[in-house]
Specification:
alpha+beta, six-stranded antiparallel β-sheet, five-stranded antiparallel β-sheet, 2 helices, 31% strand
């Protein structure tokens, strides 16, 4: 995002420099030497340049809009880790290209799975749903589900999550489902505001 902002600023600075040079050149060289009959050509020149600048500005705006949309669809986390009650990493699930997933588990609470809505297995217990909304992951516990906890960052408190409430997930958060923990692995080289 920082690279795109810098590129946009460079394009606008280049356009401004070009406009200032053009104004200087027209003011000191063209206008004094133009005979009165040639004013129509000068007006056409200004019109063409105005259209050019309008197209450039619209292109910059469209590029910025498309870039923002692309960033909204991209996960800020590279993957998530499912960690067993003994502290061992059981699974790593990549999140790039995903917009939603289910956190399910076996009835005994000792196994946790990450599944898509289309590929969920029957007979598994549903803890909650994670959705990517405007470039941020949100977790929502399902009504009637087993207790699901959330530990925020460096806090030593595990909060009991209420059903049907969206909880934004941050890089250091840990979701507790059954006897397992779910930890988000941050995307490398991400620029944060």
């Amino acid at each position: 995002m920082k690279t795109n902002q810098t590129a946009g600023k460079c394009v606008l600075a280049g356009m401004l420099a070009y406009l200032l040079i053009q104004i200087y050149f027209i003011s000191y060289y063209i206008i004094p030497s133009v005979p009165e009959e040639a004013w129509e050509d000068l007006v056409c020149l200004f019109l063409v340049q105005s259209v050019f600048f309008a197209v450039c500005i619209v292109a910059v705006l469209i590029f910025g809009f498309l870039q923002q949309k692309r960033e909204e669809e991209q996960s800020p986390f590279a993957s998530l880790l499912i960690i067993s009650g003994e502290g061992k990493i059981k699974r790593e699930v990549p999140l790039q290209g995903k917009r939603s997933f289910l956190i399910t588990g076996k009835k005994n609470g000792k196994e946790v799975f990450i599944e898509t809505v289309q590929n969920s297995e029957a007979g598994r217990y549903l803890y909650g749903i994670c959705n990517l909304i405007h470039g941020q992951w949100y977790f929502e516990a399902v009504p009637g589900s087993r207790l699901v906890g959330l530990k925020r960052g460096a806090e030593n408190i595990v909060y009991k999550l209420k059903a049907e409430v969206l909880y934004q997930l941050f890089p250091a958060d840990v979701i507790y489902a059954g006897t397992c923990k779910i930890v988000m692995r941050k995307q490398k080289n991400t620029w944060e505001e």
